[in-house]
Amino acid sequence: MIAKIEKGENLWGALTYNQQKVDNEKGTVLFTNKIPDLWDRPYSVKFFHHYFEPYLIANNKTEKPVRHISLNPDPNDQVNDKDYREMAQQYMQEMGYGNQPYVVFKHTDIDRTHIHIVTTCVQIDGKKISDRYDHSRSMEVCRKLEKQYNLKIAGENRNLNQNSIFKPVDYTKGYIKTQLSSILRHIPQTYSIQSIGAYNALLSQFNISCEEVTGELHGKMRKGMVYFATDKNGKKISSPFKSSLFGKQAGLENIQVLIDKSKMKNNPSKFILKRTIETALSTSKSEASFKSQLLEQGIATVIRKNDEGRIYGITFIDHNSKSVWNGSQLSKELSANSFNTLWNEVETKPKTNSYNSSNNDISLEKSSEHFFNNNSYEVFDGFFSGLLSSVPHEDQEEQIFESQMKKRQRKRR
């Protein structure tokens, strides 16, 4: 079982997100602590918020008093409502929130049934419940609950999906916005990314793509982000969803902050990942076997090719360290050019890849038509009065390759 702890300041937003699941019959209220049960009428955000108010009013120092926690058993675990209630109560008690008001919601909108808990870390006297080492303490509690309730241990039998608590978006099941939300509200805070291209490569593992967009708002040019559901080949199969639908975490400004932090951070997993990739490269005979070897170790490989099959980009997603790296960032020997030289001499037929950056390039005319023809998903709530153009954010490898191709075309002319 995996626990995810979000820290924020918007209690109303956290309650609304969960209550909407209940209102849409995609969730239920399983348990409340220090909040009365309602048997004669449905719950509401206003009702819940009323019982948190004394704690929020008492707060005078804590900047992020809200805790939004999700407990995620393995999709194959069979957990009934009684067990969910007991696990939530025990988890909150051992994490120090046993005397706090909190609400436990069960989500059933996707195949992976799980629970969300909304509470506050501010006590009634205004003091904050310590969150030091809460990640390691949370892991310890999860391991204990796994043994008590005979759940699968997180990290066993690893493959691409089991290394993440998230399942790829499945367009055939509907509720696309809900599926996107369950991923985009957490992924940006979970992985270390160093470019928009790397972020897109990560999202491709979950059948999602993103694009930067620009437009005019009150006479000023603004930038933002939109998201699409894709099929397994990276082709967009949904209308665009503006990032504000999924919270600040999915917004361009927050993504850029995360990129800057990742660049500044000295990640010790980089050397381990490099050695693992080099070993797989030396023992594999083809692209397929190379990717398979890495996948068994929790590392996904995203390869970008042009229409002729030339490799111009390669990204490695380490689900163990939750980090994403372009090959050239690890070493020159692991750059896209190196892999193209190695594999293109053997594999002459282009392969369809799960993520193709060419699918992300939309012309100005096509982009404007696509975005504005669907009124239910107008970008930035329709505030942009100018044309909306997509601004692809390409990796350095892609830029170098395109520059080389243009020079060749000019020489031919």
The portion of residues forming beta strands comes to 15-25%
Structural class: alpha+beta
Number of domains: 2
Whole-number mean pLDDT: 80
Low-pLDDT parts are 156-163, 347-396
Count of DSSP E strands? 12
User: In angstroms, what is the radius of gyration?
Assistant: 23 Å
Question: Can you characterise this structure?
Answer:
The protein folds into 2 domains: 2-148, BirA Bifunctional Protein, domain 2, CATH 3.30.930.30; 162-413, no CATH class. The protein has 14 helices and 12 strands. It has helices at residues 11-23, 45-58, 81-94, 134-148, 176-184, 187-190, 196-204, 252-264, 269-283, 287-296, 327-330, 336-344, 364-372, 396-412; strands at 2-8, 27-33, 66-72, 102-107, 114-120, 208-217, 220-229, 241-242, 299-305, 311-318, 323-326, 389-390. The protein has a 5-stranded antiparallel β-sheet, with helices on both faces. It has a 4-stranded antiparallel β-sheet with strand order 8-7-6-12. Strand 4 (102-107) and strand 5 (114-120) form a beta hairpin. Helix 1 packs antiparallel against helix 2 (45-58). The longest helix has 17 residues, at 396-412.
Describe this protein with a few key phrases.
413 residues; BirA Bifunctional Protein, domain 2; 2 domains; five-stranded antiparallel beta sheet; globular
Quick overview of this protein structure:
The chain has helices at 11-23, 45-58, 81-94, 134-148, 176-184, 187-190, 196-204, 252-264, 269-283, 287-296, 327-330, 336-344, 364-372, 396-412; strands spanning 2-8, 27-33, 66-72, 102-107, 114-120, 208-217, 220-229, 241-242, 299-305, 311-318, 323-326, 389-390.
